[in-house]
Design a protein that fits this description.
single chain; 244 residues; Rossmann fold; 6-stranded mixed β-sheet; 7 helices; 30% helix; globular
Length: 244
């Protein structure tokens, strides 16, 4: 039986910009099953980025419920949410956010520095994560010595090094050409299928959303569409993801 990874009910997020009250989310209900690959679409200001921040425990809803693997996240302290971010969630962004003076391997090691993982274990796990995205031979290269696609692969390796159950990707192909985007989305597809990682991808591009299994569309803080992808696009890149 497939269980729910994410259960959202009546989610409201309100901001105050000076004296102006902004309702970014207006009572959103959403269930994402374990192992789903969901694309989130919508124009700027529609609420999709606010949702991602809440899913990633970077922000809290004003009202409503967010349950991750059956646990009510809104009741957690700041430290509790930080533990969830570190242990259960991986993040991939449009900007690769790599530290320029660290090698690819050292960048991937970063999430483990804060959880008392030994240096040898960090190197082994970081190396396995880089191998999973096909970059084991570039482990000791600096970001400036890597292409944009390779830098994004390092960022994905960093996101999966702690074996998260949930991977959040915010416009991860926004800085890449179409061929490289296809390779990156192929990695996401294989992580989803071979490791069972629940994956939520924010994108503005309809063709990018076709790599997912399901698409939701936001407008003015509410979900206005929710449907499976009828003709799913598959990556042309043949390489698999090593189990690591």
């Amino acid at each position: 039986m497939v269980t729910a990874a994410i259960e959202i009910s009546g989610l409201v997020k309100t901001y105050m910009l000076g004296d102006v009250r902004v309702e970014a989310l207006k009572g959103v209900d959403l269930t994402i099953l374990s192992g789903e690959f969901l694309a989130v679409m919508g124009p700027s200001g529609s609420g999709k980025s606010t949702l991602m921040n809440i899913l990633g425990c970077l922000d809290r809803p004003t009202t409503g419920s967010y349950r991750l693997d059956g646990r009510e996240v809104g009741e957690l302290t700041r430290d509790g949410r930080a533990v969830i971010r570190r242990s259960r969630i991986g993040f991939v962004f449009q900007g690769f956010n790599l530290l320029p003076r660290l090698s690819a391997l050292e960048n991937v090691e970063l999430p483990m520095i804060y959880d008392s993982t030994s240096a040898d274990a960090r190197r082994d796990r970081a190396g396995a994560a880089l191998a999973a995205v096909g970059l084991e031979e570039r482990a000791h290269h600096l970001p400036s010595q890597l292409s944009g696609g390779q830098q994004q692969r390092v960022a994905i390796a960093r996101a999966i090094v702690n074996t998260p159950a949930l991977l959040l990707a915010d416009e991860p192909t926004g800085n890449l050409d179409s061929a490289t985007s296809d390779e990156i989305l192929g990695i996401f597809q294989r992580l989803n299928e071979e490791r069972g990682i629940t994956l939520v991808l924010v994108t503005h591009e309809p063709d990018i959303s076709e790599y997912a299994r399901r698409v939701i569309r936001f407008r003015d803080g509410v979900i206005v569409e929710d449907h499976p992808v009828a003709s799913r696009r598959r990556s042309a890149s043949p390489a698999g993801v090593s189990p690591g």
